[in-house]
C-alpha cells in the first residue's frame, strides 16, 4: 500500500493505492477512508488498481479555497480522479455514505468511465422520503437538522468531538466482533481543525440547505435525478433502518440489468468494517460476473 498525492480540479488530494489493473476507486463519506482497509487489499489481489482517496476538506487532503462541499464538485472530483489516475472504461466505482451519494451521481454523469458500480448504505435519493413524517425516522436523521445551526461547529468540537462518538453509536451501535475505536479516531483526525470540521458540517448545509431542502428548488434532486446505466450492486446493513428487504427489492428493480443487492445481516451503517468478509465476498463476486 502506497500513500500518494494527486491534483484534481485544482485540489491536492491524498490517496492510498495498491495493486495493478483496472481502476477500482473507493469513496468515503462523513467518516473515514480507513473503512476500506479490508476491501482495498482484496481488490488489489483480485487484479485491480485499488485506490482510496481522502475527500476534499478532510485531512490530509487540501481544503477547497472556495469552501465548496457541494455534491456537483464531489462528483467532479470522482470523475477527475478517474482521468488523473488513467482509468479506462473497465474502471469500477464504489461509495459509502457521502461517497455513496457521489457514486450515484458520478456513475450517471459519466457512464463511459465506469463499468460497474457499488453503493453501500446510501439508497437512491427518492427512497429518502420513505417514512419522512415518522418521528423515529426524523430522530434517526437528527444530525441533518442539527448541523444546519451555526452553533453546531462549537458543540460538535467540544469534549474531543464527543458528538461524533454519539453519532457513530446512533447509526451503528455495538456490532459483535467489531471494535470501532480506531475508526472513530481516524474520523476525528480527518476533521482535526476548526476549518476542516466546518467543511464536514458544510456537506449537510450546502447539500441539504434549510431554505430549500425538500422543495422543488432543492439542487440535490436535479443532481441525482438519474440512476447509473451500468450494473450496480447495492448493499445495506440490517441494523441501518433506512432500507429494509422490501425497499431493497424496489431499489434493485429500478437498476439496470445485471444489478443486484443484499442486506448484510447484523451490520449497521459501517458494514465495510463491521462485516468485511461477507461484504468483500459479495463485491468480488459481483465484479467477477
UniProtKB/TrEMBL annotation:
Recorded GO MF terms: hydrolase activity
Gene3D superfamilies in the record: alpha/beta hydrolase (3.40.50.1820)
Organism name: Streptomyces toxytricini (Actinomyces toxytricini)
Q: Which InterPro entries match?
A: AB_hydrolase_1, AB_hydrolase_fold, Epox_hydrolase-like
Q: What domain of life does the native source organism fall in?
A: Bacteria
Q: What are the record keywords, sorted?
A: Hydrolase
Q: Where is the AB hydrolase-1 domain?
A: 25-276
Q: What is this protein called?
A: Alpha/beta fold hydrolase
Cited SUPFAM superfamilies: alpha/beta-Hydrolases
Amino acid at each position: 500500500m502506497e500513500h500518494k498525492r494527486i491534483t484534481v480540479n485544482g485540489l491536492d488530494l491524498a490517496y492510498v493505492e495498491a495493486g495493478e489493473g483496472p481502476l477500482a476507486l473507493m469513496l468515503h463519506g462523513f467518516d473515514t477512508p480507513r473503512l476500506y482497509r479490508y476491501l482495498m487489499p482484496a481488490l488489489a489481489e483480485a487484479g485491480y488498481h485499488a485506490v482510496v482517496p481522502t475527500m476534499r476538506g478532510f485531512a490530509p487532503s487540501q481544503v477547497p479555497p472556495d469552501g465548496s462541499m457541494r455534491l456537483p464538485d464531489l462528483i467532479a472530483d470522482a470523475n477527475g480522479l478517474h482521468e488523473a489516475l488513467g482509468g479506462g472504461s473497465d474502471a469500477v466505482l464504489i461509495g459509502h455514505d457521502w461517497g455513496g451519494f457521489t457514486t450515484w451521481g458520478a456513475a450517471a454523469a459519466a457512464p463511459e468511465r465506469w463499468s460497474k458500480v457499488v453503493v453501500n448504505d446510501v439508497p437512491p435519493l427518492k427512497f429518502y422520503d420513505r417514512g419522512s413524517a415518522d418521528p423515529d425516522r426524523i430522530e434517526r436523521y437528527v444530525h441533518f437538522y442539527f448541523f444546519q445551526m451555526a452553533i453546531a461547529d462549537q458543540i460538535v468540537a467540544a469534549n474531543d468531538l464527543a458528538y461524533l462518538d454519539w453519532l457513530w453509536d446512533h447509526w451503528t451501535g455495538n456490532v459483535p466482533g467489531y471494535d470501532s475505536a480506531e475508526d472513530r479516531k481516524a474520523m476525528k483526525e480527518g476533521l482535526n481543525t476548526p476549518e476542516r470540521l466546518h467543511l464536514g458540517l458544510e456537506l449537510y448545509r450546502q447539500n441539504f440547505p434549510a431554505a430549500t431542502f425538500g422543495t422543488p428548488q432543492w439542487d440535490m434532486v436535479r443532481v441525482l435525478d438519474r440512476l447509473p446505466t451500468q450494473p450496480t450492486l447495492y448493499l445495506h446493513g440490517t441494523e441501518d433502518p433506512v432500507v429494509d428487504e422490501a425497499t431493497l427489492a424496489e431499489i434493485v428493480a429500478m437498476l439496470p440489468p445485471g444489478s443486484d443487492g443484499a442486506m448484510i445481516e447484523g451490520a449497521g451503517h459501517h458494514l465495510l468494517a463491521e462485516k468485511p468478509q461477507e461484504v468483500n465476498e459479495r463485491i468480488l463476486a459481483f465484479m467477477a460476473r
